[in-house]
Amino acid sequence: MRFLILLSGLLTFLSAQAEEIDQAAALATLQRADSLLIDVRSSEEFSAGALPGAIRIGHDEIAAQIASIAPDKDSPLVLYCRSGRRSGLAKQSLENLGYRQVINAGAYDDLLPLLEAQE
User: Fold this and answer.
1) Do 56 and 50 form a contact (C-beta atoms < 8 A)?
2) What is the per-residue pLDDT across 20-48, written as a single tens digit (0 to 9) for each?
3) For the CA atoms of the chain, what is the radius of gyration?
4) What is the pLDDT of residue 19?
5) How many domains does the chain have?
């Protein structure tokens, strides 16, 4: 029984991790004037440091709040968090709502030097 519980937990964790991170596509999309950069971390994490131009919407709030900043479901959306897990979950939520151009950019700490190198 304990094995089944552990296996179930592992499968849940892996499915949350399965959302692919694509930093190259994220960087290319951020060059577009119509793209939106969304930080799905907590407000505390956002206050400690965020990418320039990022809008904060927690991953658990994104489905309820996205229409206020991106009513067009063809808007290019780039999401990031601490590791890529929450941005992957948020990406799935947005795609379930019909958003078609959503990119999981992964981790804040990985993106910051890449964006600085582009400047």
Assistant:
1) yes
2) 899 999 999 999 999 999 999 999 999 99
3) 15
4) 67
5) 1
